[in-house]
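Students often ask what a holo structure prediction actually looks like on paper. The answer is less mysterious than it sounds. You provide the chain, you provide the ligand, and the output is a string of discrete structure tokens encoding the 3D arrangement of the protein together with FE2/S2 (inorganic) cluster.
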Amino acid sequence: MAAKKLHVDGYKTLAKYMDQFDDKDSALIKVLYEAQHIFGYLSKEVMLFISDKLRVPASKIYGVVTFYSYFTTEPKGRCQLKVCMGTACFVRGSEKIMRRLEKDLGIVRGGTTPDRKFSLDSLRCVGACGLAPVMLANEKVYGKITEDDVNKIIKDNNA
Ligand code: FES
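The corresponding structure tokens follow.
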């Protein structure tokens, strides 16, 4: 019941957010960003809701969502772990960090743990090459990490 109420509240919050825009068409990216912030991902139902409210074709919304890697149509973990695979991080062992995370979390890159605590993915250079290898846990940045740091990073973010 609590999850359903949260769901309904999410749609109300999103509808209120959309109401502030006069030019509905140009608001699409901001609305999608807010919707993902509210729901954690952009489900088919959420995209159809936005399509209806903004009067933007669902096909256009789907096109935007799948074009930008920021948006996701799959539920993600509450903590999103991302390992930088840019050149500086790669040559300093980010692939080993990734493999260790996959092993410790029991998922592969792009996956989410069954309890939805963690998602694991890679990303390109985040502009902190001096700290290579780098990984993110949501907005938190970890630099100069080794395989031995992985377990502590998981524990620190296991909320
Ligand atoms: S290559 Fe990883 S931060 Fe630049």
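The first helix runs from residue 2 to 19.
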